[in-house]
């Protein structure tokens, strides 16, 4: 996954974004700006990949000290591989249409960013900074990412013309849409489970998912059979486990899934679930 992500990200840079003078987001975009600045001011051609590596070194060290070894190691290795691939893959123009370059560059970058996030690590750079800020301040990186991308867009517009900045906006938007489509951990669903075996279903759900379940007594309108509607809010990643448990426990159950716009109150993320499982294991 790390190798595939690195190749995809490097292809997006060298085949679409860099030839079209279109900038990526985050560390990759900053690296593009630095590479272009050095080339224009000092007449020295330094590949973008070297700047990606240079910027990720201090961030990786900080992540190692403040986050933990596994996440930081995988993320840092991915950033190194991306730098390496960006150096060895030749820069060439596939499309002379800047709109196509912006769209495909953003889409391919989104694929390279989303799959590492889906499998529990990142492509380094701002993702590591996001986790550090969340860990130390409890706040998200959303505002910083917006400011970083805005600076990239403004510099791109000032140096290369505002047409380049507009294409950069298109590329970043395309990337964000692809990331949202693939990395669905943050998406929430509300499951309404109609069952005549509520006790058994709840017991098996509690063994598999660490989620609160609300039991609402119900009655079938046709046969007047007493049952229950179970309501549980899950992340999209937990959908398979929920469906498997419900169908294996009560094959005659009916499950209605509704997209959840927002939630308020206690919500166990992955860290909270891990702590709860460790507490249960210690108690047993």
Q: What features would you describe in this structure?
A:
The protein has 284 residues and is of the alpha+beta class. Helix content is 64%, strand content 11%. The protein has a 4-stranded antiparallel sheet with strand order 2-3-1-4, with helices on one face. Helix 2 packs parallel to helix 7 (142-160) and helix 5 (98-118) runs parallel beside helix 8 (162-182). The relative contact order is 0.12. The model has no long low-confidence stretch (mean pLDDT 84).
Quickly describe the structure:
With 284 residues, the chain is α+β, with helices and mostly antiparallel strands. It has helices spanning 2-17, 26-42, 48-66, 69-88, 98-118, 126-137, 142-160, 162-182, 198-208, 239-249, 270-283; strands at 188-195, 214-219, 226-235, 254-260.
Task: Reconstruct the topology from this structure.
Elements: H1 2-17, H2 26-42, H3 48-66, H4 69-88, H5 98-118, H6 126-137, H7 142-160, H8 162-182, E1 188-195, H9 198-208, E2 214-219, E3 226-235, H10 239-249, E4 254-260, H11 270-283
Antiparallel strand pairs: 1-3, 1-4, 2-3
């Amino acid at each position: 996954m790390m190798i595939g992500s690195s190749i995809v990200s490097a292809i997006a840079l060298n085949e679409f974004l860099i030839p079209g003078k279109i900038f990526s987001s985050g560390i990759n975009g900053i690296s593009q700006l630095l590479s272009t600045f050095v080339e224009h001011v000092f007449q020295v051609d330094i590949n973008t990949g070297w700047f990606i590596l240079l910027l990720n070194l201090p961030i990786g060290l900080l992540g190692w000290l403040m986050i933990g070894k596994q996440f930081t190691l995988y993320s840092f290795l991915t950033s190194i591989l991306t730098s390496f691939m960006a150096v060895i893959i030749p820069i060439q123009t596939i499309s002379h249409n800047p709109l196509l370059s912006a769209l495909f560059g953003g889409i391919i970058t989104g694929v390279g960013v989303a799959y590492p996030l889906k499998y529990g690590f990142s492509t380094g750079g701002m993702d590591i900074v996001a986790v550090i800020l969340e860990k130390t301040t409890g706040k998200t990186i959303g505002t910083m990412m917006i400011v970083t991308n805005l600076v990239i867009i403004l510099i791109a517009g000032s140096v290369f013309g505002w047409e380049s900045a507009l294409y950069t906006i298109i590329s970043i938007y395309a990337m964000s849409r692809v990331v949202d489509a693939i990395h669905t951990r943050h998406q929430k669903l509300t499951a309404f489970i109609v069952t005549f075996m509520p006790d058994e279903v709840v017991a098996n759900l509690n063994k598999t998912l660490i989620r609160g379940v609300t039991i609402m007594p119900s009655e079938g309108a046709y046969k007047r059979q007493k049952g229950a509607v179970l309501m549980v809010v899950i992340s999209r990643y937990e959908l398979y486990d929920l469906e498997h448990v419900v169908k294996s426990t009560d094959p005659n159950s009916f499950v209605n899934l509704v997209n959840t716009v927002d939630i308020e109150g206690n919500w166990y993320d992955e860290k909270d679930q891990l702590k709860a499982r460790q507490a249960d294991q210690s108690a047993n």
